Amino acid sequence: MSIFHLHPQIQYMSRKLTYQGKALLLGFLCIALWWVLPAVVKRFSRVGVYEFQAPSWVAMSYLKDLQAYWTDRNRTENELIEAGIDLARLNAAYELRNQQTDILEREVKALEGLLDLPSLPEYRYEIARVVRRDMNAWWQQIIIRKGRRHGIREGQAVVYAGGVVGRIEQVYEHTCVVQLLSSPNFRVAAHFENDLRPIQFNGGINQILHDPKASLNNVPPDIFIPANQSIRVISSRLGGSFPDGLTLGYVQSLSPDASGLFQSGIVTIDPRLLSIREVAVLIPFHESSSMTSPK
User: Fold this and answer.
1) For labelling alongside 255, which of 2, 91, 165, 192 has CA 20 to 30 A away?
2) Does domain 123-295 have CATH number 3.30.1780.10?
3) Spans of all domains in the chain
4) In which element (H, E) is residue 86 found?
5) What is the b/e burial string over 182-202, where b = at least 16 CB atoms within 10 angstroms of the residue's CB?
6) Residues 6 or more apart from 285 whose CB is under 8 A from it?
7) How would you classify the pairing of strands 213-219 and 199-203?
C-alpha cells in the first residue's frame, strides 16, 4: 500500500491538527497586530468597546432599582412602621453626631487661625449607584452610574459607610471605573488611629468569594498590638485625594519585614466592600465651582 493512502482516521487527525495550527497562527497574528498598533488606536478601540457595553450595564442597574421599588411597595404596614421607627432612631443619632461635628469644626478653624495653618480641603459628595463588579485575583474594580458630566475626575476618592472604597481610575461620559482599595495596584499613605506617623497601605491579591485583605509596609518598629486586639488603619491627608480619618481596615498582628528596620502586617477590610450598591465620590469644592453642573 502506498504511503500516500493513509488510514482515514490518520487523515482526519492530520486535518484536525492543521485546523488547530491555523487557529493558533491566527491568534498569534492578532496579538502581534495589536502589539504594533499605535497607542491612540488601542485607546480609541478600548473606549469604543466600553462605551458600547456601558448602556446595557446602566439599563440593568435601573431595572434592579425598579424591582427593588416594587418589592418595597409590597411590604406590609407593620413592616413599614418598624422601618420608620428604626429610621427615626438613626436620624436622632445622626443629629447628635452632626452637632458634635459642628463643634469640632469650629475648634479646628479656631486652631487654624491661631497657628496660621492652611485650611483643610473641603468636598461635596456625589452619590452614585454601582452597576457592575469585576472581582478577580489580579484586579478588583466596580463601575458606577455617574461620570464626567457630574464633575467626576480621575484620582478622586470614593467612600461609603464603612470608610474608603477606592479611587476613580477611568472616567467616561456617564460612567466611571473605581479601583477598589483591595486591588493589587492600589497604594495610599495611611496611619494608625492613635499614631500620626505615616505608613504605606497596599492592596493585595484576593481570592474570589473571600473577605478582602491588604497589607501594610513601613510600620515603625515600636508599635505593638496586644493579643486578641486590633488597631484601626485610617487614611492620611498625605495620600492626596483622601481626607484624614477614613477607615481602611484593621490589623491584628505585625512582624518584622525583610530589612529588619520596619514592620509589616495584613489588613482585614470590611467585607461589605464586595457587596456595596451605592458609593459617594469626594469632589473638592474648588473643582466643582470651576465647572457648571448639568441640569
Assistant:
1) 165
2) no
3) 8-36, 75-119, 123-295
4) helix 77-115
5) bbbebebbbbbeeeeeebebb
6) 121, 122, 123, 124
7) antiparallel
Cell of 100: 458634635
Q: Where are the beta strands (DSSP E) in 71-173?
A: 123-135, 140-144, 157-160, 163-171
The answer to whether 180 and 142 are in contact (CB under 8 A) is yes
Q: List 176's β-bridge partners, or say none.
A: 144, 171
Cβ atoms of 170 and 178 within 8 Å: the answer is no
Work out the angle at residue 24's Cα, subtended by the Cα atoms of residues 23 and 28, and round it to the nearest 5 degrees: 115
* Grid cell in block for residue 50: 466600553
pLDDT value at 288 more than 60 = no
Type and span of the H or E element at 116: none
Q: Is the pTM of this model over 0.70?
A: no
Distance CA 256, CA 142 (A): 34
The CA distance from 81 to 94, in Å, is 20
Tens-place pLDDT, residues 82-130: 888 888 888 888 787 777 777 877 887 888 788 776 666 678 899 999 9
Which cell numbers in the block locate residue 186?
492600589
